[in-house]
Design a protein that fits this description.
homodimer; alpha/beta; two-stranded antiparallel ribbon; 11 strands; 46% helix
Chain lengths: 377, 377
């Protein structure tokens, strides 16, 4: 199905767009009353993730409200370790936990790459269902946690503030750590390829905990395995698109990849050079500086502080415009996708999201129009 | 009293030292059984902080065990807001909390700079007691939280993972935020000056939550107020030192300052240019890069990942040597103080601290000796 709004994919391919395309990490989530209603109906968060029709329903909810330029698969970051048999569960009021964390040599030896067509079939089914429901309105993003980020949860058995268990293994038994990461990398690649096969039009790797690593450990234990995933990705997929005379024809289209290391601003050039099409940036790095450092290596996605959405609507708009001004107007061969620097907070007033999107689309359109008519061009 | 080991102060003044001086953030703490015994005897953590003799006892404990090159005042980061009347308390198994968080205009209007000679007298008493007990073995570091970091706790009412309350105020009511920060800056300056007056030979500002801010917000809401503190510090104090013929004479000595913004690697040059004598660095930034970026602007302190201390002693030593190699040997006008990139974990085996210090002192001595005899000099 031909895309009606492909501005997001064009920005990732670093082709010109009329405005800065925008989507929001965790855009289908608890700040939306309709999401909470569906989740309640599902009975649990995991049930919501594992039922393709419900995952499709919540994926589309933010698109009904807001003029977003992309949809992102609704799923959990920990589907892979769950499929490995670690027993994912959610304790009331706490984050995700695993019944059987990977703490010793025997547990590491027992790990294997799950079959995305079997244990993770519910995810590819959701991708197919969502693609159909989207009808080409906007592209669908697939995603996975990075090998290192998955390892953090697998070894810690849940969230952590100091990463003591996983870092103890890293420093004490780097051989075990590398074994886990190699399996995770193969699992993430197979998982993302299955999502691409099922219809994902772009993929994003969330390296949420890469920023907890030291310089040197980041390159060795996170970035090296992100590279391995990227090198194994099927970067093209067959799509039915409108041919020159309007008939539908098959065409190979590129599936761009985005890598987002939270707290990875110091390693920006290295991440941008990992083989991805775009690098996600959190709010600690100004986009002007990011753009100067990345150059024409890849596109940039980011980076409003999600907490800026807690202010009044006109203040939210002023902050969004500051982000756009900080980036400037993309030159030929550059691309910018507007996003938050992290997932949207569950406490965000939905009307502030409307205000944000309006500011991004209106202001960036003006920015680009004035750029085109500038005497210097 | 003349200092027996002044390597720490010399490194901060960027004068040559025979080895890389070393101390550890939170070196007096729960990883030491003798600390836990004193704390138990005190009855509570706050009682321990507020009783100068006990604070002195635990400050000296790590120096009895390890050949550390500096002592740091044992105290809490939240003494200032406690002295402001916010009601600091520690709930069992949780971090610090305030009974009366600063959430609205009225609470902000009621804030005032506490008198370090009155409400915070127990801190300056502890400094005096510790100086006497140290007898000049090593210098004593005084410290405070940064204005922004104190504001985080004051507005949140405790720790936070998303800083929602304090950032909502920042984005929605920047006027209130600036008012709190101005008061905090004056309070921190008065507090550190009182510590210097009482005998602190260096001071450190812990900007533990500066890294949670966006670029632009960091400069406006954290760094600007750190600058304000530094500009108000009494950078010299009167010390009794040995004169040329051995008799004790009074001398003005410089009191160097260290600024540590956790997660502040992206803003390194700006922090180094804030007026401090040294900048603290966490493990996300390689010391080689840090040194190149800071140049001869100020000294550098850091940056081993505290979790590296969870490995076997020989692995701890290998990691320490990597940090030293990453820095290299200081050129004239440069200085390096070895430290962790954050506080030592309560789960650290004390024998690993011995192994660490031995590696730092032995290896850095060799490094410097070989540098001196190198043909290039």
């Amino acid at each position: 199905m031909a895309l009606i709004n492909d501005s997001f994919l064009r920005a990732l391919r670093r082709e010109p767009t009329e405005h800065t395309p925008v989507w929001l990490m965790r855009q289908a989530g608890r700040y939306l009353p309709e999401y909470n209603a569906t989740r309640k109906r599902a009975g649990s968060f995991l049930k919501l993730c594992k039922t393709p029709e419900l995952a499709c329903e919540v994926t589309l909810q933010p698109l009904e409200r807001f003029p977003l330029d992309a949809a992102i698969l609704f799923s959990d970051i920990l589907t892979i370790p769950d499929a490995m048999g670690l027993g994912l569960y959610f304790a009331d009021g706490e984050g995700p936990k695993f019944e059987r964390p990977v703490r010793d040599e025997a547990a590491v030896a027992a790990l294997a790459v799950p079959d995305p067509g079997a244990e993770l079939r519910y995810v590819t089914d959701a991708v197919r269902t969502i693609r159909q429901a989207l009808s080409g309105r906007v592209p669908l993003i697939g995603f996975s946690g990075s090998p290192w980020t998955l390892a953090c949860y697998m070894v810690e058995g849940g969230g952590s503030s100091d990463f003591r268990a996983v870092k103890t293994m890293l420093y004490k038994r780097p051989d075990l750590m590398h074994r886990i990461l190699a399996i995770n990398a193969d699992a993430v690649a197979a998982y993302l390829n299955a999502q691409i096969e099922a219809g994902a039009q772009a993929v994003m790797i969330f390296d949420s905990w890469g920023g907890a690593l030291s310089d040197r450990a980041f390159q060795e234990f996170s970035l090296a395995y992100i590279r391995r995933v990227l090198a194994s990705l099927h970067t093209e997929r067959e799509e039915r698109v409108a041919g020159e005379s309007g008939e539908m024809v098959s065409q190979r289209v590129r599936v761009p990849s985005i890598v987002f290391t939270k707290g990875g601003g110091l390693w920006l050039e290295q991440i941008a050079g990992s083989g991805c099409d775009a690098v996600g940036i959190d709010w600690t790095l100004g986009l002007g500086e990011a753009r100067a450092r990345v150059g024409a290596q890849c596109a940039i996605q980011g980076n409003l502080d999600p907490m800026a959405l807690m202010a009044a609507p006109e203040q939210v708009q002023a902050e969004a415009i500051r982000v756009l001004e900080s980036y400037g107007t993309p030159s030929p061969g550059e691309g910018h996708v507007f996003n938050l620097g992290h997932g949207i907070s569950q406490f965000t007033p939905p009307e502030n999201v409307s205000a944000l999107l309006e500011a991004v689309q209106t202001f960036s359109r003006k920015q680009r129009a004035s750029q085109v008519s500038a005497p210097s061009l």
